[in-house]
Amino acid sequence: MKIGFLKETREGETRVSITPTVAKNLLKMGFEILVESGAGLGASCLDADYQDAGAETVDRKKVYEADILVQVNIPDEAVFNDIPKGKIWISTLQHRNNPELISKMNEKGISAVSLDAIPRISRAQSMDILSSQANLAGYRAVIEGAYQLDKIFPLLMTAAGTVTPAKVLIFGVGVAGLQAIATAKRLGAVVEATDVRPETKEQVESLGGKFIEVKGAEVGSEGGYAKEATDEYRKAQREAVNKSLAKADLVITTALVPGRKAPVLIDDEQLSLMKNGSVIVDMAAEQGGNCTQTKANTISDHNGVKIVGSVNLPASVSGNASDLFARNIWELLKLIGPKGDVSWDLEDEIVQGCLVCHNGEIRLTS
What we know:
Largest sheet: 8 strands, mixed
Oligomer: single chain
Helix content: 25-40%
């Protein structure tokens, strides 16, 4: 079978869904590889690199001749309209938020794999694009926050006096939050973190952070994701974190609920508690933001607090992000096409979790 890898059309996107190294691995499995010319430039992958690996670099029209089409992002209208009937499509689809797109794909007889729906189970860890990209996003959020601050992270003792370490507060201890904790600690900050799942306390402390406990109102997790917090929990969390929020130099928010608007964790009243010159990096900006004053893809100032509405942070480290994304695709193809020809095992838990539509049937709706 032929796999076609398309150039991304989303504004500001620098990632690519295939790298020359992974192209070699897929060729060894028996696939033929078509890469749209120029697709890898944002990630420093040249057409010549793909050609050296054994892949063909072709124009977009030729890519559409492949049996399987792959890209990082949800297809825009122009891309979707050009997808031929009966193809296999693999990308992020956010199917819960895009039922109309999934319905149209189904009408075209497309077998669509939503990469963001791959279940968070041990067998699927190597295919989990959300985790691989969130890991990098957590790192990049700290770097962005450090850049926006008017002070350094580490303790510094000089002849002119002592510089105290920066205080960093992180909301959400998932993959992104854990990497943010680790990165901030490596840079020398004092780090605190909070999460609706009490079991994350041990993880925070293992990285040298302090966990802010919200006792008596735990929320927990379901399917590898944090559940949506109750009003009771939000009230208790607010009381527990406000003291730390008032002292923080940098706050990073990471809270997302799949298929829903991001929960508000920092409202206007809480913003008024924060120090002049402090910074918020809101990693949920694209889903509405965890802060009431967040504006997506914008750095704004609210009474002396700088709010960074982060969008697509992995694209700012496109080389690593593309490599990990491509490896996730490779691992998925090992499952569904180990000999260069896709065969769907509809009883497999991973296939059940991410095959959104197939054979004229919409298989996932929520």
